[in-house]
Design brief:
alpha+beta, 6-stranded mixed β-sheet, 5-stranded mixed barrel
């Protein structure tokens, strides 16, 4: 039976839905974020119709909607967060919330309910992380190419199979990686153009089966092979994080690699110079506490941002 497990990293928490050793879904959260599902008592700062701006107990501002007609500025109300903040090119979308009574039943929070583990199965997180970093996932006969835009996430399907074969072969991989990347919001899928209506119906049927149980709405494939999916957006996907915070993602992965090397001595973490500035002193202190080893940071401009290396070296007293 599938269960959520959570790995408490340094600077982030990672959750995976595991069935045996197979990863069915993944989520990522950074501790400073105001997460979807969180309830709070906040002051209504401004109101225009049923929308407004509220203040979170942390002092941060949150967009609110579905406000009752008699809601008054300056009064405090109970809100539930429906979407975390979203960074986009050149701007930051504030978190969004609604009055608690307007939200009703919220989805379960894997981070609160998951079983804590020291480490995920070998490669389980790395494979997803590298796929999100590259924006490309290969499968037999083709590949899925992901691109994050302010309006939607676009997925192009490319390959050498016939259009019908390629489209059908892509469907199970598409359904799998939507969950592994924790994608939501508006998603556009550019399948190969299928001239025959019967072929388009076959792909629609395959999508129905593959996406069963994943809450969403979607269009039927049009004559150009395009399908649009709309799913609940609760926060940035792994793809969105790489699009807007690549160095931050790489810095946290560097710490994970350093935490997992074993042996006596000191931890030598070699990173691209851009990463060193992102490694907060408190993160490095936590790394030393967890590993019971001193940490040395060296830089190498020849390393890729994503290619930080960790090893054990002799401890110089």
């Amino acid at each position: 039976m599938a269960e959520w497990v959570v790995e408490q990293g340094i600077g982030e928490s990672r959750a995976q839905l595991l069935e045996g050793d197979e990863v069915l879904a993944a989520k990522l959260r950074w501790p400073e974020e105001i997460a979807a599902g969180e309830s709070f008592e906040g002051k209504l700062l401004r109101k225009s119709g049923t929308r407004g701006l509220a203040q979170h107990p942390s002092g941060r501002e949150i967009l609110v909607d579905k406000l009752p007609r008699d809601a008054g500025e300056g009064a405090s109300y109970r809100f539930t967060v429906t979407r975390a903040a979203m960074a986009e090119r050149g701007r930051l979308k504030l978190p969004a919330a609604r009055p608690a009574e307007a939200v009703g039943t919220t989805t379960s929070d894997p981070f609160a309910e998951a079983k804590p583990v020291r480490h995920f199965p070998s490669g389980a997180w790395e494979d997803i992380w590298h796929a999100a970093s590259s924006g490309e996932v290969g499968f037999a006969g083709g590949a899925l190419l992901f691109a994050v835009t302010p309006g939607m996430t676009v997925i192009d399907i490319d390959g050498e199979l016939s259009p019908r074969e390629l489209a059908l072969a892509a469907v199970p991989e598409l359904a799998r990686w939507l969950r592994l990347f924790d994608l939501g919001g508006s998603i556009g899928i550019d399948f190969p153009t299928l001239a025959a209506k019967a072929d388009r119906k076959a792909v629609d049927a395959a999508l129905d089966e593959a996406l069963d149980g994943w809450p969403h709405e979607r269009t039927a494939m049009n004559g150009f092979g395009f399908v649009q999916i709309v799913a609940r957006l609760e926060g940035p996907s792994l793809l969105h994080r790489f699009a807007t915070s690549r160095v931050g993602m790489a810095a946290r992965m560097a710490l994970r690699r350093a935490e997992q090397v074993e042996g006596p001595g000191a931890t030598l973490l070699t990173v691209h110079p851009a990463l060193k500035a992102k490694l907060k002193p408190e993160w490095c202190a936590e790394l030393e506490r967890r590993t019971a080893r001193p940490v040395r940071i060296e830089t190498d401009p020849g390393l890729a941002i994503e290619a930080a290396a960790a090893q054990i070296v002799a401890h110089d007293d």
